[in-house]
């Protein structure tokens, strides 16, 4: 018992800061969403309008969940619970892998196993610790909703649902740690499980049948095979039933038994699935520094493309809804005009442009990561080996610039394609496809500017690449996207490249900002390449 | 004889640190040249300058008569390099890394010959090429880089402390590969901080300290540096007892313990005398560079240099930087 307490305290000491951030972050999200809903949809009639649009729109249902009543409380739960559940799930998978597979991988677990703690007790300690964390997290979520002014009983149910979903993914994480040999692999599998749970309930929600009043929905069976779906089915603030959470507890118990069985049967450090082996020989594509840069970067690029496609999907299907909402509520139009200054097109076109500025930010973020990867290669020492071959420094840099450009184009294209297709799918005219691609093209210059400016930073101030890269992107986003909303002065907004992106709406699109940025990007990229010829390797 | 690598008064400053401070180095075509110095002496820095990855602050260096900074790509066609502390790509298998580096070096034009060399090297170094980079130990990462280096023929091999992570068995394999490459006419620059390691392989050695060359010559010329150190204890030991032992140098008698040096090839002639004396606590050790400096240059490393020698290695600094980077 004493040993268990020691192990428990050790876990608390090690994780306290990290978990505080997670838990406070989740609680703040809950609190913030209440005030946001109050501000945006405070008026019951408007709320009902939106909900009636939502039940008819599969992509909203997929993303958020199903509405269960038109009250403010129910609206908040509909809007935010699935996000909270995903965050709680990820917090738990990271936690359980950190204290299981990561420990084994580092060899620390073996040290512990040799002490009286043995092999099972650390796992028990992790489970107890995780359970405590979930209770605290659930409590904070409930308190945040109550503090926001929602019904106490419903808030308690929502907190319980959060804790139960979290607990399930604690067990999933521990199970993944038994399967995989590396903590990276275990984290990947467990996070994929969280994503799958979210997507599966999304399918069930999207395929659900709306009630006669269009304020409730009966979900399809898919939602009943997802731990997050069970959390939603507590119908907090509506029916307030805790019974679906028994499914969470049962699944948790099942995974935990599997964990103990597997752990008793295997050697320390071993895993159910052997570590993934690589190819014995390289493919033909891996024969240049460009090929290498692409090989290192493509998984990340795919990630950004998926994000951008999600954004696009939303745009295409929401544009329709926005048009409807705007006729009902003139404030929507105001918000839109704040987002996109100087636009003259229809509201739907404005909306598409506004969302595509965000897709542009995603593309710029993807480019930022490409340059950061180059810096990481330099610091790790792998670049040294590449540059000791026939690859010149300039060619090495150009390889990354090429990968960066291709990535930007791919991210923009996947956003445009998803947006165009989803618009047509919800019955918009096919002209929307053209609008989407034009909006995506308009974002190309700003993203390219980010790519080449950061490349120049990498050449001139290598040690600053990572820090400055994200800072520049963050500032540009805040100034360019939200500057208009919060009334920042014109000159501050003008600092951001995104402010100068063309707004391809109507007949009189002004492309000059884009052309200028394109020219600057090219000049800066040339400067970076020339500078690279004169720069030493810098590993410090 | 042609000189392949030539450096005169080479200087390299990193801020206020003088990593190289007037270093001279000359390596002839076809020789195996040992490049020796304690940690922090400037071996890796010299190599980076010779590869054109760092730019000298003063002095001059040439490889095949060309300037490594300006003609780097041209030169790299003829050079194979193994860094001091090999890092690999976490996601690429060892086999992929070997293929990639060989292709970038241009050594795979003759596909069949390359495949054969690669297979043979993987076999002799007992490397598992299917493991991912992140799961190799230091020694295995080193093997990957060595296989990649030897898998494509090069005119010069520049190897920075290549055996530091290898076990003795693999050191034997490594020595064989060096001899094989040398017999094919390649020039080899082999850095190390352990004298005995290069002794068996090298035709000539250059010894540096604190960025300066202190000795250079053939092993025969440096014989006085490479004597083995012998020490033992025996009650009532006198100078006369030791006088009976043949070929003793640098004798010292302290607290009944004798300490002296012997030419390394004369050790066996020592043994009968030692048996006769019935010595206890016999210790026979090749001289370390540190002892050698102590003995021949009459001084301890001065405090500033000692702290330099202990200052974190390039790799350790890199690790720090990587950590910082990942935190951001
Ligand atoms: N990039 C760098 N920045 C600052 N100091 C460096 C850098 N590279 C090497 N040094 C310093 O130069 C000296 C020589 O280092 P190095 O060439 O790595 O020695 P060796 O390879 O002989 O151990 C050391 O004092 C080291 O700390
Ligand atoms: Mg070194």
| Mean pLDDT level of chain B | 84
For the sheet with most strands of chain B, the description reads:
6 strands, mixed
Q: Could you state the oligomeric state of the chains shown? A: heterodimer
Largest sheet, strands/sense/barrel of chain A: 2 strands, antiparallel
Shape of chain B: globular
Number of strands of chain A: 2
Examine the coordinates and then state which fold CATH places here, giving the name of the CATH topology of the largest domain in chain B. Rossmann fold
Are there runs of chain A of 5+ residues with pLDDT below 50, and where?
A: none
* Helical content band of chain A: over 70%
Largest beta sheet: strand ordering of chain B: 5-6-7-3-8-9
**Cα end-to-end separation of chain A:** 48 Å
H/E element order of chain B? EEEHEHEHHHEHEHEEEHEEHEHHH
Describe this structure in words.
The complex is a heterodimer of chains A (540) and B (328). Chain A is mainly alpha-helical. Chain A has a domain at 1-272. Chain A has helices spanning 2-41, 44-55, 58-64, 72-98, 101-106, 108-113, 120-147, 152-179, 183-206, 227-232, 245-265, 289-328, 330-339, 347-380, 382-387, 393-425, 431-442, 444-460, 465-486, 490-495, 512-533; strands at residues 209-210, 217-218. In chain A, helix 2 packs across helix 12 (289-328). The model of chain A has no long low-confidence stretch (mean pLDDT 87). By secondary structure, chain B is an alpha/beta fold. Chain B has two domains: 3-223, P-loop containing nucleotide triphosphate hydrolases (Rossmann fold); 227-285, 2-Layer Sandwich (Alpha-Beta Plaits), CATH 3.30.70. In chain B, 37% of the residues lie in helices and 27% in strands. Chain B has twelve helices and 13 strands. Chain B has helices at residues 43-50, 72-76, 94-105, 111-124, 138-151, 168-183, 195-199, 239-243, 267-277, 289-296, 303-310, 314-327; strands spanning 3-14, 17-28, 32-36, 58-63, 79-82, 156-160, 187-192, 204-209, 212-218, 228-233, 249-254, 257-262, 280-285. In chain B, the strands form three sheets. Chain B has a six-stranded mixed beta sheet with strand order 5-6-7-3-8-9, with helices on both faces. In chain B, strand 6 (156-160), helix 6 (168-183) and strand 7 (187-192) form a beta-alpha-beta unit. In chain B, helix 4 (111-124) packs antiparallel against helix 5 (138-151). Chains A and B meet through helix 12, helix 14, helix 15 and helix 19 of A and helix 2, helix 3 and helix 12 of B. The complex binds adenosine-5'-diphosphate (ADP) and magnesium ion (MG). Residues 43-44, 84, 160-161 of chain B line the site of magnesium ion.
